[in-house]
Backbone:
């Protein structure tokens, strides 16, 4: 199997939440050893992440495969100046009971980089907010213990008013068993839309 085919297979397994190290070991027939990963993120909001899997065979020879994933940014136009929208965004996080661990008044950024939650984020079911795969017809996001990074910010709009931007990503793990690896979860857009709707409603109520 060529290197490009290996990389595509690893990306497919990563999207399904399967460990990259196991995927690589399975692809390299007759090769044993270990794998390690490292990551770097471009920018502080959204952007791309480069993950390198380093594979080592029994003879000690190593090779690396780079994989790039992108954190999607969901944007919504707010018909209000940035300071008013920023205050409304903070209220939205309070309404959703999302604990705030990051708050930057200068960049108007708010979020949580290690948000542990199950079943619901405020009144948004996790099965509508995230896709973590599924078992026996039940979405994993409904039952898994989730570790999320959720972040929002307010920026000026070129057309006037403001824009609220939100990113959501994370991993999930079965809450009923200690075994098993984390499953990568991707956003389905429901939480980002809820945050934007709350900001608009809070702005209108002022």
Residues:
């Amino acid at each position: 199997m060529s290197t490009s085919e290996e990389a595509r297979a690893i990306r497919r397994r990563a999207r399904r939440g399967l460990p990259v190290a196991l995927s690589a070991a399975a692809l390299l027939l007759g090769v044993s050893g270990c794998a390690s990963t490292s990551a770097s993120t471009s920018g502080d909001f959204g952007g791309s992440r480069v993950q390198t899997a380093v594979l080592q065979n029994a003879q000690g020879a190593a090779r690396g495969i780079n994989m790039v994933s992108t954190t999607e940014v969901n944007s919504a136009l707010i018909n209000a100046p940035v300071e008013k929208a920023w205050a409304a965004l903070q209220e939205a996080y309070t309404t959703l009971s999302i604990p705030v661990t990051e708050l930057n008044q200068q960049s108007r950024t708010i979020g949580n980089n290690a948000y542990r939650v199950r079943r619901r984020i405020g009144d948004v079911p996790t099965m509508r907010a995230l896709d973590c795969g599924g078992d026996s017809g039940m979405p994993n996001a409904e039952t898994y213990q989730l570790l999320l990074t959720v972040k929002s910010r307010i920026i000026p709009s070129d057309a006037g008013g403001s824009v609220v931007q939100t990113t959501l990503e994370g991993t999930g793990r079965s809450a009923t068993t200690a075994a098993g690896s984390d499953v990568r979860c991707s956003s389905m857009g429901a939480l980002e839309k809820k945050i934007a709707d709350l900001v608009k409603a809070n702005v209108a109520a002022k």
Summary: The chain has a mean pLDDT of 76.
